[in-house]
Amino acid sequence: MIHSKQQGFTLIELIIVFAMIGILVGLALPQFKTSMTKAHESALKENLFQLRKLIQQYYTDKGKYPLSLQALVDESYLYKIPQDITGKADTWVEVREQPTMEDIEPGMTVGIVDVHSGSTEKALDGTLYNTW
């Protein structure tokens, strides 16, 4: 007498497993997107902090502000200009110093005193990236 016992999963078992996988993916995907945005925002905050620190270091060393972010690279304060949250290195907004009428001298050049993101998008906390 030969017993033929079939091995495998029933259709209902497969449907339940796939439904559970779908639910788990549906719950995890929004968390993944949020965590990626948080990582990009954290990188932007660190890049802004480092750029501002280097601008001040340049001022301390030279007694004047750099003419551009590229000047920080040219004078070896920075290896390369980091990417903005837009994914490009050329979208940073350079804030120039505003000398008073008494401070203006012939041939004077104004340097950058601050830098902001060039992105007009909103962060997770509702503020604009370009206000950081």
Describe it.
By secondary structure, the protein is mainly alpha-helical. It has one domain. About 45% of the residues lie in helices and about 5% in strands. The protein is built from two helices and two strands. The protein has helices at about 10-60, 70-75; strands at about 95, 110-115. The protein has a two-stranded antiparallel sheet with strand order 1-2. It is rod-shaped, with a radius of gyration of 27 Å.
Question: What is this entry, summarized?
Answer:
The protein has 132 residues and is mainly alpha-helical. Helix content is 44%, strand content 7%.
Features:
single chain; 132 residues; mainly alpha; two-stranded antiparallel sheet; 2 helices; 7% strand; rod-shaped
Number of helices: 2
Counted beta strands: 2
Number of domains: 1
Q: H/E series, N to C?
A: HHEE
What is the overall shape?
rod-shaped
Biggest β-sheet: count, sense, barrel? 2 strands, antiparallel
How are the SSEs placed, and which strands pair?
Layout: H1 11-62, H2 69-74, E1 93-96, E2 112-116
Antiparallel strand pairs: 1-2
